[in-house]
Amino acid sequence: MKNSVTFRAYRPEDLDEILQLFYDTVHTVNAKDYTPGQLDAWADGRADREAWDRSFREHDTLVALEGDRIVGFADMDGSVGYLDRLYIHKEYQGRGIASALCDRLEREHPSGKYTVHASITARPFFEKRGYAAVREQRVERHGIWLTNYAMEKVVEKTGREE
User: Fold this and answer.
1) Cα torsion through 154, 51, 63, 9, rounded to 10
2) What was the pLDDT predicted at 157?
């Protein structure tokens, strides 16, 4: 019997598992939309551990777990409503984990506008969440060009938000 997925705040001891999940997800899930060279430029397996940890600690970072295995993570700069990263393990795609992570982060950081730089692969997911592409972007990583989309979701404030 499978454990249910739970969520908690990032801890520095999560970093190794998160970096492996990031690398594996990019090289499998995104392989349908990017070339092998682009995947290697995006996730080369040599992430700056200190920078990632610092960013995770500065942002509101959530991890999704099944038992004690990290199956996804997301982080948001709540001061500006910017969703920085959202990655779900290849074996856990389509189970609502990404939606649950986004829902929690958006609920914890009510904002009039949320933004994300979405990959070609992730664009349909964000469109279903009410995001619209503002512009297509070409981003250079290690001399290789990748396409992504600056997307935003405008949220009407309810009467109870101040």
Assistant:
1) -90
2) 64
Q: Which helix (H) or strand (E) holds 5?
A: strand 5-9
- pLDDT average, residue stretch 114-121: 97
Predicted confidence (pLDDT) per residue in 50-84, tens digit: 999 999 999 999 999 999 999 999 999 988 999 99
End-to-end alpha carbon distance in the chain: 44
Write down the pLDDT at residue 66.
96
Strands of 14-156 (E only): list them: 60-66, 69-77, 82-88, 113-119, 132-141, 144-154
Report CA torsion sign: 49, 53, 54, 55.
positive
In this prediction, what percent of the chain has a pLDDT beyond 70?
94
Pairing mode, if any, of strands 60-66 and 69-77? antiparallel
With a CB cutoff of 8 Å and minimum separation 6, the contacts of 115 are 80, 81, 82, 83, 150, 151, 152, 153
**Cβ–Cβ < 8 Å for 108, 78:** yes
Kindly report the pTM of this predicted structure: 0.92
